[in-house]
């Protein structure tokens, strides 16, 4: 269907409830026509599903202004490296869910420096509680990326959101309704480059794994600004602190 679209005309592909696509290779689905929207119908397990059955399987967004809405992504094999890869500007990923089924994905969404002004909105990452995931969202460069999260739960060895390799600028992460890490690293967001800029908050709720003095390290990045309210709790039965 993507191959039948015309670039920058605003073509829409509607995917019906119950439909499943199986990806067994890199760029198994390539959104490589600019301005195309793929919109899934249905709710819960009836949403259109993309099942990744090889570790290198990917859906790529390599053309600008593409949109992906209401798709369920399932890992049909352990250690899928990065199911969704975004390398083009002005793309939108709205109300998608990445769900671990067999083992864990290594990174849920991976960007390149070309993913300027990417919006990942109302995202769900339903990860396995066992180790194996590095990050729910891995950001490499880019400018003006915006992220909101409905639910992100997993064993994130690096962090729920990991800025790596290349600094990002003007990152905006807000309205995170539910974040839980099951890894002792206890990190929601980390800038491993230590030069990224942007605003973290408001309206972020973070649950950590260990009852330790790690609350202030849940968001790590010296050049970010943090805007309250950001609530952190690190033990069952406790009330979060601001």
Distance between the termini: 48 Å
- Give the proportion of residues in helices: under 10%
Number of extended strands: 23
Strand content: 35-45%
Low-confidence stretches: none
Overall mean pLDDT: 96
Question: Number of helical segments?
Answer: 0
The helix/strand order is: EEEEEEEEEEEEEEEEEEEEEEE
Overall SS class: mainly beta
**Outline:** globular
Largest sheet: 15 strands, parallel
Radius of gyration in whole Å, from Cα?
Answer: 17 Å
Commentary on this structure:
The chain has 242 residues and is an all-beta fold. The chain has no helices and 23 strands. The chain has strands at 12-15, 20-23, 29-31, 37-40, 49-52, 59-61, 67-69, 72-75, 84-86, 92-94, 97-100, 107-111, 119-126, 133-139, 146-154, 156-163, 171-181, 189-191, 198-200, 204-207, 219-220, 224-226, 230-233. It has a 15-stranded parallel sheet that branches. The radius of gyration is 17 Å and the shape is globular. The mean pLDDT is 96.
């Amino acid at each position: 269907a993507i191959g039948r679209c015309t670039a920058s005309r605003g073509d829409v592909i509607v995917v019906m409830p119950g439909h499943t696509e199986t990806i067994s290779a890199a760029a198994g689905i390539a959104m490589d026509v600019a301005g195309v929207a793929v919109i899934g119908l249905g709710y819960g397990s009836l949403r259109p599903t993309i099942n990744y059955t090889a570790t290198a399987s990917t859906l790529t967004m390599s053309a600008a202004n593409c949109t992906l809405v209401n798709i369920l992504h399932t890992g049909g094999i352990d250690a899928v490296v990065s199911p969704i890869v975004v390398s083009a500007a002005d793309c939108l990923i709205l109300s998608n869910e990445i769900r671990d089924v067999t083992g864990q994905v290594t990174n849920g969404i991976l960007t390149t420096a070309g993913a300027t002004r990417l919006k990942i909105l109302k995202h769900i990452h339903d990860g396995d509680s066992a180790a194996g995931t590095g990050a729910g969202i891995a950001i490499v460069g880019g400018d003006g990326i915006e992220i909101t999260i409905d639910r992100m739960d997993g064993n994130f060895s690096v962090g729920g959101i990991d800025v790596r390799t290349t600094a990002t600028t003007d990152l905006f992460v807000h309205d995170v309704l539910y974040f839980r890490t099951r890894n002792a690293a206890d990190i929601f967001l980390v800038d491993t480059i230590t030069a990224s800029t942007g605003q973290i908050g408001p309206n972020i709720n973070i649950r950590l794994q260990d009852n330790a003095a790690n609350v202030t390290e849940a968001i790590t990045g010296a050049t970010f600004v943090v805007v309250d309210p950001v609530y952190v709790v690190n033990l069952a039965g406790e009330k979060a602190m601001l």
